[in-house]
Amino acid sequence: MAEYKLYYATNRNHEGKDQQHPGSYGAKFSDDGMENLRFGVVTVTADDNQVAKWLNWGMEDCGVGNGENLGEYLTGCAKTAHIEVYEETIKPHIADVAQKRAKLGSKAMFADVMSDMEDSSDVLVYIHGFNVSWYSAVGSALALQLMLGNAQTRDPLQKVLVVLFTWPSDGLALPWVSYKSDRSEAKGSGAAVGRAFLKARDFLAELRDRAKKGGKELCGQDIHLLCHSMGNYLLQGALARIYDFTPGNTLPRIFEHIFLCAPDVDDTALEPGQPLARVDQIARHVTIYHNREDKAMTISDYTKGNPERLGGTGAAHPALLHNKIHQVDCTPIVHGIVEHSYYLAGNVSADIRASIDGWEQDDSRRFRQRNATLNNVWAMKK
């Protein structure tokens, strides 16, 4: 048996004795409000033979690794996981900056994450999508961390640590009712994500100021973001929240690379004046992964009355995208059950890992080919 550690932030309601000693987290907002954030570490015990089985599972056209099945296995293991919450002593009705003696869980977790980053580890913040319970969120995040750490072409000296942001996605698997409920919860959670990003921005700014004054030098590792499905809808709300609390018209750069995976947002969302138009400002690079056969995108289009999805056919006008933004069509290599969670499939997760490791978009080692007419449009190849 092996133990797997996962940092998390959440605005879900706690289940159990109290918020400092939760047994798990539920499908509603925290009792202290939708923007109330708890920070902690969950430790999952799993059979390392089962983990190795799915990490090394060969998949037709998708390469090595079945991260979706690995996530399902780890979801079951998460039901007996140990949760440790970072202690907080803060008055909820007074601004954080006005409470000089307040103990913030966010700062404590950031400090621990920074310590891990000093051990040659990049961080990938992961925001899950629609219809995901607490247990499934933990299972998927750990599967993502393990898949990225098992990519066949990875830099063996570079580690990747996944940090989970989990919001109250109800996990009831009722296609129409659950979707509408989760979309409402996602809208409310976007501000909470923005609040978490602002906390991270302030923490990083403080570190840089200390380094300039002769303090401890920065580790040189990078922070990335991966949003899956409706998690991209949360990102829209987060950008609006960051904009409201940022002086001037340009948002702070927080991430090295942002991965928009199966994004359940409008296919025009990245165009000027649209909700994701400023996403290039908070990252050096942005990559969209989409799949034309994604059934979840089809359901979103036609049964929920949504416009064409970015995660289905990609950007409506790719030539209008900022030069930082590239899109990758995964249709040629994903089939069956991985048609929506294909970011956990071998060659797609390997492509994500390649970007984390700093490969150029046109690196010949990638399993993709460029569109004949558009330099920012790619397709995965078998």
Question: Would you write up a description of this structure?
Answer:
By secondary structure, this protein is of the alpha/beta class. It has one domain: Rossmann fold. 32% of the residues lie in helices and 23% in strands. It has helices at residues 48-55, 67-78, 105-117, 134-148, 175-212, 231-244, 295-302, 310-313, 346-356; strands at 2-10, 12-16, 22-29, 38-46, 58-59, 63-64, 82-85, 121-127, 159-166, 223-228, 255-261, 283-290, 325-329, 368-370, 377-380. The chain has an eleven-stranded mixed beta sheet, with helices on both faces. The chain has a two-stranded antiparallel ribbon with strand order 2-3. Strands 5-6 form a two-stranded antiparallel ribbon. α2 packs across α4. The two termini are 35 Å apart. The model has no long low-confidence stretch (mean pLDDT 88).
